[in-house]
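[job 4471] stage=fold_predict status=RUNNING
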Amino acid sequence: MKLKLTLATATSAAVVAAMVVVMSSGANAATLFSDNFDDGNANGWTRSGGSWSVMSGAYAQTGTSSDAKAQAGSTTWTTQSVTARVRPTSFGTNSSRAVGVVARAQSSSNYYSLVLTPGGAQLRRGATVLASASLAVSTGTWYTLTLNAGSSTLTGLVNGVQVVNATDSSYASGRVGFVSTYAAATFDDLVVTDAPGTTPTGSPSPSTSSSPPAPGTCNTSGTADGHATGTTGGAGGPKVEVDTAGELISAIGQSGPLQICVRGMITLPAGMYDVTSHKTIVGIGDNSGITGGGFNIGLPISDVTTPPANAVHNVIIRNLIFRNASDDSINVQMFSHHIWIDHNDLASGYDGLIDIKRGSTNVTVSWNHLHNHTKTMLLGHDDNNGAQDTGRLKVTYHHNWHNRTPQRNPRVRYGEPVHIYNSYFVYNTDTGPACQVYSGCVVEGNYFEDVEEPVTNTYSGPAGRCVARNNVFVGESGTPECSGTVQEPSTYYSYRLDDPNQVKAIVMAGAGVGRI
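[job 4471] inference complete, writing structure tokens
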């Protein structure tokens, strides 16, 4: 086990794990276009040069011997902000080598771009450099680039910090896209809006700080919100780095505060592994996590109805990839409380991705990307468990991306108030939030796309109660089936709603790993 004593601090121009936001000069920016390539194709894109393909839910260009471009959208788009994640994988030897995003493309040679080079960032008009800044750029690292094209003002941001600007009026309109000039790169999570500026709108991750850590460091800062307000995890305890199953299992089982930094994907033997109180478990970068096993936060199951004094509490799980769990990916049980599950990527498990049950309470599940899985999330495991669950199971779900997860988004029993807000639900073929068995849910400010039964309180078993308000329903989405009154979440904590029309873009840009 490797002890990590300090965090390196990045300069403001070299932030690498900063907030991911859609930049806007006002609260009503419209999303012109977005693509996260999770559908496995690049339909609608035109390419010139290079070798382009969709791999593992991202758009990759693998050649280094040409000036490669991919473009999409409309030639009539004028004012625009283009945000995407970009990972250079190999810089060739040509002096013009660069990778980045494109705005106002009128042809394969006439466009504006914000690019990363081996030594910095540049604003370009075609091949002409308009502005440049020194910046440490590493291959294999994800960067979030934002190119704002106003009437004649261009600004470029790297990981939320403006690093270059220029004035040029050569191109008034055009398409958007990616450029990879004598370099290989991977591109993902493109969002294009019609109102660039320098003031972030929406709700970026609450953990964002003004001085994020340098590449590859372990960011354990952040503030829990919602029902989990006050959760501090392992703050104040030592910081350790783990990269083997044995080290991880040992660390999560220790007593006392501990900040655990997971480096790389760790394969656990099948099973659930107990996490003790006062732990922060956070992944390093955007490719760290666990596969094969899962985390259990809670004492062994029993029929007690009074919360025990030693119930597990004060646990934070962030920025981790969960794959192929033999049971649940994350299970919270037996009166555990003050748990924050944030900015994770969860898919392809055996049972639940995030299950919360048996009297657990004061939990927030935020900014997670949930995909390629059926039994997504349970809140309350059984219709007959009222003795443990009544008056508990208080959970906040916000800014989560329910990406083609058919059911349990979540399926709720007993909890009240369960607060589900500002999340993006897309193609959930069974149901979105299902509030049943005497539960009370407030479902507000969400964006539902092609969800036949977006919200219901009569899904199965005894009915619950739900209030659905200020949600957006598009495509083949149905209408909410809600009735009854529910405790207001605002009596427990304060919160601010994003414009539900912008939630799709905000969540796609900010949910998942590599965004804290």
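[job 4471] summary: The first helix runs from residue 245 to 252.
[job 4471] exit 0
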